[in-house]
Amino acid sequence: MRAPTLGARATGVLLANWRGQSTVPAADLYPHQWSWDSAFVALGLRHVSARRAQRELESLFGAQWTDGRVPHIVFDPASSPRAYFPGPDFWRSADVTGRHRPATSGLVQPPVHALAAWETFRADPATARRRGFLPRLYPRLRAWHRYLTERRDLGGTGLVGIVHPWESGMDNSPAWDGPLSRVPPVPAREFRRRDLDHASATERPTDLDYGRYVRLAADYRDSGYSDRPERHSFAVEDPLTTALLAAAEDAMAAIATEIGADPGPHRREVDRLRAALVDELFDPATGTFPARDVHTGAALGYGSVAGIVPLVVPGLPVADALLATATGPRFRLAELGLPASFDLTDERFDTSRYWRGPAWFNIGWLLCRGLREHGAIGLAGTVRGALLRAAERAGFREYVDPLSGQGHGAKDFSWTAAVILDLLH
Ligand code: 9WN
């Protein structure tokens, strides 16, 4: 018998991780629904079952708060509340939402959802139209984007801000070391990490990081999830979140056109967000978009791959500079194909610790899209080929060493399988 193809194996992972209404990122380590994971999952799932991909996004938006926020975790009541820390008892979302089911976190994650919704629609327009997929989702996506532009413009500059490293999706990126160092950690004995039951401590954030994550999340919860910047010891204007919102607004223009709404406001949002990114964050000297600390004004993390992901924004006027950074000594993208999550030449670069160096498949997918968007077809092909080869060799790992391709973190990780499946189509 012939071995199953890469595509068949990726499909197998998505089927195994499906929980009836949504997909868990990884069975043991992350046994609930995560926000941006679901968007990436939908991009792959649409090739397996367009209906399931639609459900994935609908179930996430079913947990949306009335203020428009889409929580970063939607807890699965069928999974033990102790399976993941911090669980539902920590976040106490019902105190704010008044709803006990579903229990959620109160943080957010990068807004890839409109882009995923549009791509999901395109995979099977007939089923989507029959189910009223886009007309039902559109007002929810608008409320989500409004939450980000109104409540999360923490610096008053038009950029989108985050109040916790978990919101960046790149939890322990060295970019956050500076602002995090000001946060008094909760002592490690006061909480029990569940991630270390399933993953090696050398590949995860440290206990000190976790103590600070817990402090920030508890303070946010205790403020009733208030978004006033002075309430937050960690407040950062984030290029990844802002760029993905711009790309999402571009998708919203397409969605609006499809359902007979006015695409104009969405196009203007793309223009506004692009201008804010370039005027406020772009650094010509380093050819990247560093994040910015709202409290000190300091530029953070010149080395984060988040600074080159704005390639996903259509019509970005500084794309050539980002391409030079991507292919230069700090990322060596043309040579490696795999996108390091942090500057290879920085002393904090680490081949195997989470977001401090390893290559992630969702970031690779976004870069492929951004490179194609700006005409770098050859480089996009190089990245695609490297991602496929890495998955072929290492399996659908959560992340891989960008230099050797060795796999790390969770196995059978959903978004890895999903974006690989999409890249195969
Ligand atoms: C905290 C689920 C999530 C991803 C994030 C990734 C990791 C969580 C964790 O896993 O974060 O949200 O427990 O470490 O950093 O990007 O969405 O896959």
TrEMBL record:
Molecular-function GO term, any one: Glc3Man9GlcNAc2 oligosaccharide glucosidase activity
One Pfam family in the UniProt entry: MGH1-like_GH
InterPro entries: 6-hairpin_glycosidase_sf, 6hp_glycosidase-like_sf, Glycoside_hydrolase_63, MGH1-like_GH
Magnesium keyword on record: no
Gene3D superfamilies in the record: 1.50.10.10
Keyword Hydrolase: yes
Coiled-coil annotated spans: none
Protein keywords: Glycosidase, Hydrolase
Gene Ontology biological-process entries: oligosaccharide metabolic process; protein N-linked glycosylation
Top-level division of the source organism's lineage: Bacteria
Domain Mannosylglycerate hydrolase MGH1-like glycoside hydrolase: 30-416
Recorded family membership: Belongs to the glycosyl hydrolase 63 family.
Name of this protein: Mannosylglycerate hydrolase MGH1-like glycoside hydrolase domain-containing protein
Organism: Amycolatopsis arida
